[in-house]
Design brief:
It is built from six helices and nine strands; from the N terminus they run H-E-E-E-E-H-E-H-E-H-E-H-E-E-H. With 226 residues, the protein is of the alpha/beta class. Strands 7-6-5-8-9 form a five-stranded mixed sheet.
């Protein structure tokens, strides 16, 4: 009788551990992620990339500098899945948590050469290469996996507002002088199309983002083999 109760107790512990693991390891909500074509983030569902029109929204060519002083262009994102966000090194508010959560993504895909991270400084006049390098060292940023980007302010703000659609203030006209500050993370596929938007402060969203990246990887494999 004692042995039976002990076995029952062990079984309950094992079930509990498995349940916790299942909750922590999110799966993607769908088998194929939608595409996004405008700031409203209305999902567009297609079964094949060939169904997208030539004028469907994509991220344009850019040229920026990372924490190592290397020039980063769309050539570095070619055939890569990447996550983009916007931050600044002196930010005392949301940026430290965003950086911490980007670190979770870095850890999850550290050995995956198909996935990279791009963090754009919204104060590029202050965030020089040396400043970004110091920030990278403090926060465990791994070069080649996670690029902290600086460059022309006009280009960075244009990318953020008009191409990544990172601001949620839909319908509110913003000028080039208005400060860009957002917690959103944007998921971009290997063809430079936007495939998701996530709250970079929310751990549940980060876990969902990790799951969605894995879904995109499966999609890329299917596309290349078809």
């Amino acid at each position: 009788m004692i042995v039976s109760n002990m076995n029952r107790l062990i079984l309950l512990v094992v079930i509990g551990l498995c349940s916790c693991q299942a909750q922590n390891e999110k799966s993607s909500r769908v088998e194929r992620l939608p595409f996004y074509n405008d700031p409203s983030f209305t999902p567009v569902w297609v079964d094949n990339l060939n169904e997208l029109s030539n004028d469907f929204h994509s991220i344009p060519d850019f040229e920026l500098i990372d924490q190592d002083g290397d020039t980063i262009t769309t050539e570095q994102t070619k055939d890569k899945i990447y996550v983009a966000d916007f931050f600044f090194t002196s930010c005392p508010g949301i940026c430290p948590k965003m950086t911490k959560n980007m670190g979770m993504l870095q850890k999850a895909f550290m050995d995956d050469n198909e996935v990279i991270l791009l963090s754009h400084s919204v104060t590029p006049d202050l965030d020089s290469v040396s400043v970004l390098q110091s920030y990278a060292n403090r926060h465990g940023v791994v070069s080649k996996k996670w690029h902290l980007l600086t460059g022309e302010r006009e280009l960075i703000y244009d990318l953020g507002r008009n191409f990544y659609f990172v601001e949620e203030n839909l319908g509110i006209e913003k000028s080039a002088d208005d400060f860009l500050h957002t917690e959103n993370f944007i998921l971009v596929d290997s063809q430079k199309h936007i495939r998701g938007i996530y709250n970079g402060l929310n751990k549940t969203d980060i876990m969902q983002l990790i799951a969605d990246i894995k879904t995109l990887k499966k999609e890329s494999t299917t596309q290349s083999s078809s």
